[in-house]
Amino acid sequence: MSATLRLEPLGCVLPVAEGQSLLEAALAAGIRLRSSCRNGTCRECIATLEAGTVRYRVDWPGLSPDERAAGCVLPCVALPEGDVVLRQPFHDAAAPASMP
Ligand code: FES
After folding, report:
1. pLDDT tens readout for residues 47-83
2. What is the pTM for the complete model shown?
3. Is 47 left (phi over 0), alpha (psi -120 to 50) or beta?
């Protein structure tokens, strides 16, 4: 099942392919979000999920129960379960997308 990602405050809507993380979907669209480890450990990519739900690629992403309850997500390992809205104010839409 594919989904869409609405990225705020940019306001753009991006497709998310099956098995693609929210970070990967943004990069594929040429939007570089803040990130580092890309495995759910460093928390550099932390953002707020404003609508929708996600599941994680890893068993224990680096979020506390309180952070999860507050809507915090780690886009590098978050897979959408349907359409989602993510707020990540730190982005560079002008830079080319790159994956290591
Ligand atoms: S980039 Fe490190 S937790 Fe997402």
Report:
1. 999 999 999 999 888 899 999 999 999 999 999 999 9
2. 0.88
3. beta
